[in-house]
Specification:
95 residues; mainly alpha; 98% helix; 0% strand
Amino acid sequence: MQSCIKDDYDEKIAHTQRLMGELKGSMEGFKIRIEVESEGWRTHMEVLKNELESLRREQEYAIEDAKHSIRSEFKGRLGGLMDAAERPSEEKEQV
């Protein structure tokens, strides 16, 4: 009787050890899968980060160009106004 109980116990222990081994293998496989997928996401995020940085730089250049154009146009118009303002005083001097 005791040998039957011992054999049953040994069988349950062996079965539990097999299940634990399978569980450990599954967990290791899952961990590897997560690492591989997370590396893919990290790469994807790095690409997006670089694209956003490139777009940011392009926008900064566009803004600087727009500022320069506005500044040049403003100076040109201001120069024209200054010339126009000086003409009447020059005409008065010539009269």
